[in-house]
């Protein structure tokens, strides 16, 4: 698993059809490496991003067991490494659960679902605000017929899902929906609030890291327009299923389209999305590989 993680990280950086490594390094030398302050600010953004993710996980797990910040750090980065090869990082659920004894594993998986759902809720809420701004201020042609078809399909799926949950027969990966709802209802309201707060703070840091990189690469946009485009990009990219290893590619493709509305150079956008992936997925996954290699069953809580 660790060898595969390192290989894919290396492969995405070195053998990249969308952005040759030579061009990537040239871009970094022109805009990033010439300033130690810029490097330190980028590292600070990444540190804050993962700090709030780790604190969020520590807070969630406190519902069943108190763990140290180091334990939460270990579980968060270790599960990131283990989930690189799985669609939408679904392997993270099993990877975090394995740190706990059998009786707690289902609860841990549901707590992880709550954490990810909270992050998605923040992404959707702020993304809708951003998209509204984009639609109002930019001339975008939309194929309403296709949107209607997608809406009909979504409505049918919701009816089936709700109907199944009412009858108690619908399951999500072995969990009855009504049992999931009951579990979430038992969680204190204060913990729900903290989870949303940490998700919001994490979103603030990684979205502003993207904005900071835009300014570093000389993209001249006012703050409100830039943040509307960034939040729209994250919303649109989040609805596309992908491997964590390909996350930068999905975000890069979406970002190219979004920032084409204001005429930003494609090379700059691809460089930023790849650098964001390295900072927020690549490096943390390398650290997490240490915990994967040193995992033993005595660590189970």
Describe the protein's architecture and organization:
The chain is an all-alpha fold and 301 residues long. It has one domain. It has 12 helices and 2 strands; from the N terminus they run αααααααββααααα. A two-stranded antiparallel ribbon has the order 1-2. Strand 1 and strand 2 form a beta hairpin. The longest helix is centred in the middle third of the chain and has 33 residues. It is globular. The relative contact order is 0.16. About 2% of the residues have low confidence.
What structural keywords apply?
single chain; 301 residues; mainly alpha; two-stranded antiparallel sheet; 2 strands; 1% strand
Task: Give me the secondary-structure topology.
Blueprint: H1 2-14, H2 21-31, H3 36-61, H4 69-82, H5 91-97, H6 105-137, H7 144-167, E1 171-172, E2 175-176, H8 177-186, H9 189-216, H10 223-238, H11 247-260, H12 266-293
Antiparallel strand pairs: 1-2
Residue share in helix: over 70%
Average pLDDT value? 80
* SS-derived structural category: mainly alpha
Shape: globular
Q: Number of folding domains? A: 1
SSE pattern: HHHHHHHEEHHHHH
Roughly how many Å is the radius of gyration? 20 Å
Please report the distance between the alpha carbons of the first and last residues.
23 Å
**Percent of residues in beta strands:** under 5%
Q: Please give the number of β-strands.
A: 2
Low-confidence stretches: 164-169
Largest sheet: 2 strands, antiparallel
Kindly report the spatial arrangement of strands forming the biggest sheet: 1-2
Number of helices: 12
């Amino acid at each position: 698993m660790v060898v595969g993680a390192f290989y894919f990280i290396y492969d995405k950086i070195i053998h990249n059809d969308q952005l040759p490594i030579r061009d990537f390094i040239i871009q970094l030398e022109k805009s990033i490496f010439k300033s130690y302050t810029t490097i330190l600010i980028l590292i600070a953004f990444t540190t804050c991003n993962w700090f709030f993710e780790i604190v969020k996980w520590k807070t969630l797990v406190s519902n069943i067991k108190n763990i140290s910040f180091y334990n939460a750090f270990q579980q968060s980065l270790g599960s990131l490494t283990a989930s690189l090869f799985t669609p939408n990082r679904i392997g993270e659920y099993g990877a975090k659960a394995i740190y706990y004894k059998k009786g707690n594993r289902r609860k841990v998986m549901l707590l992880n679902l709550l954490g990810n759902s909270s992050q998605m809720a923040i992404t959707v809420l702020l993304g809708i605000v951003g998209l509204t701004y984009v639609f109002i201020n930019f001339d975008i042609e939309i194929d309403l017929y296709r949107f209607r078809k997608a809406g009909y399909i979504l409505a049918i799926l919701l009816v089936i899902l709700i109907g199944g949950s009412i009858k108690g027969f619908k399951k999500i990966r072995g969990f009855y929906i009504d049992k999931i709802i009951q579990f979430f209802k038992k969680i204190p309201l204060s913990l729900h609030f903290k989870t949303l707060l940490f998700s919001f703070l994490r979103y603030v840091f990684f979205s502003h890291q993207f904005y900071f990189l835009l300014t570093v690469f000389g993209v001249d946009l006012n703050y409100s327009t830039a943040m509307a485009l960034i939040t729209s990009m994250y919303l649109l990219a989040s609805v596309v299923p992908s491997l964590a290893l390909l996350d930068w590619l999905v975000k890069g493709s979406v970002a190219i389209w979004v920032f084409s509305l204001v005429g930003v150079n494609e090379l700059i956008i691809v460089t930023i999305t790849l650098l964001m992936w390295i900072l927020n997925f690549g490096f943390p996954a390398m650290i997490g590989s240490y915990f994967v290699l040193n995992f033993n069953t005595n660590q189970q809580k």
